[in-house]
Amino acid sequence: MIQKPASARDLFRLPRWGQRGTAGASIPAQLTFENIVQVYGSQRALDGVSLQVEPGEIICLLGHSGCGKTTLLRIAAGIEAPTSGRVLMDGLEVSGPKTLVEPERRGIGLMFQDYALFPHMTVLQNVMFGLQDLSAKEADIAARRALSRVGLEHYAGEYPHTLSGGEQQRVALARSIAPRPGVLLMDEPFSNLDRRMRDAIRDETVAILRETGATTIVVTHDPEEAMRIADRIVLMRAGAIIQQGESEEIYRRPVNLFAARFFCDFNEIAGTVRGGQATCPVGVFPAPHLEDGPAIVCVRPQGLKLKPPGFCLPGRVAGRRFLGEVDLLHIDVPGLDRPLQARVHDPVAVKDGQDVGIEVRPKDVLVFAASDA
């Protein structure tokens, strides 16, 4: 099937979403991963992952491509069996050394990145596909109700190739919620949409997830998307969980430099820790958690504030770009081999080559040992 690309134009031609509160409630299940290992030949895709997702919780598996996010999702769905470890739903083992419950018997909904709609079936038939345990009449009613909630009830007789990318995404969502699964797994569900449409469809999708109450795992590589969606973010790297927590916690208190970099494009400055303080060319900052030695001082671009020259850290504007909500400035600072990046929300009347002062907000500074890089 050739999928039509989603564009900003689709945002204006898409039907309105259905009435909120009409999606139908699920009975959410607890989903538990116990020491999951998955090996493909010499590659260890998952390295002892343990995670518990509470009933009704929405979590995001976040990480770069190849870190094991989708593999964990496939194991949860029963598409793959783990090399070792167990998966439990409400305390009952569905994958383990001696158990493998078939995907269709797990009560799990699955929404793929490419939507995986059947091209030879109508929209209604696609949504009814997961309702085979119901009578034909009951399946028709449930499918039409799901289509109504996503605003596509009038498209029931259409075929997927006639729909835009945004419409296909809605059909895939309707198909996944129609059986009212206790667990819903979503693999990069918004990655095929452009940014403007992605924000609108994502927000409505999250509203539907809240209505159904299904326990939900969303795979994404976009940290902003994870923060907008999740009750809890699970950051992964090389088959292991690096950190998990609420968005503000993981953003403000990353456990290491990898986690910090994932959520912000920092200014990284070489420094030295002595007696619980990190010294670098832009200032001295608390580092009570680090031993003496080389360090990396990370300064968020939004943590730099411009001042008149002569009052604080001296700098010279090397470049300025207007980005709409912010100005992006590149500022040369003595002792640094590359300019600092500053994102300034207040309008600034500065020109290239102009001398400025720079104030660094301590709350926007994180310090890590150089060995953490």
Q: What would a concise description of this structure say?
A:
The chain is an alpha+beta fold and 373 residues long.
Could you describe the largest sheet, including whether it forms a barrel?
A: 6 strands, mixed
Count of helix runs: 9
Strand residue content? 25-35%
Number of domains: 2
Number of strands: 20
Gyration radius (Cα, Å) is 25 Å
Uncertain segments are 1-9
Class from secondary-structure proportions? alpha+beta
State the helical fraction: 10-25%
What is the CATH T-level topology of the largest domain?
Rossmann fold
CATH class identity of the largest domain? Alpha Beta
Mean pLDDT: 92
CATH superfamily of the largest domain: P-loop containing nucleotide triphosphate hydrolases
Task: Tell me what the CATH architecture of the largest domain is.
Answer: 3-Layer(aba) Sandwich
Strand order of the largest sheet: 6-7-8-3-9-10
What does this structure look like?
The protein is built from nine helices and 20 strands. The longest helix is centred in the middle third of the chain and has 18 residues, at 195-212. The radius of gyration is 25 Å and the shape is globular. Mean pLDDT is 92; it is low at 1-9. It has 373 residues and is of the alpha+beta class. The strands form four sheets. The protein has a six-stranded mixed β-sheet with strand order 6-7-8-3-9-10, with helices on both faces. Strands 13-12-11-14-20 form a five-stranded antiparallel β-sheet, with no helix packed on it. Strand 1 and strand 2 form a beta hairpin. The chain folds into two domains: 8-252, P-loop containing nucleotide triphosphate hydrolases (Rossmann fold, 3-Layer(aba) Sandwich); 264-372, OB fold (Dihydrolipoamide Acetyltransferase, E2P) (Beta Barrel), CATH 2.40.50. It has helices at 8-13, 69-77, 123-128, 136-149, 165-177, 195-212, 223-229, 247-252, 257-263; strands at 31-40, 43-53, 58-62, 84-89, 92-95, 108-111, 183-187, 215-220, 232-237, 240-245, 267-274, 277-280, 283-286, 293-299, 304-307, 313-322, 327-332, 340-344, 355-360, 365-369.
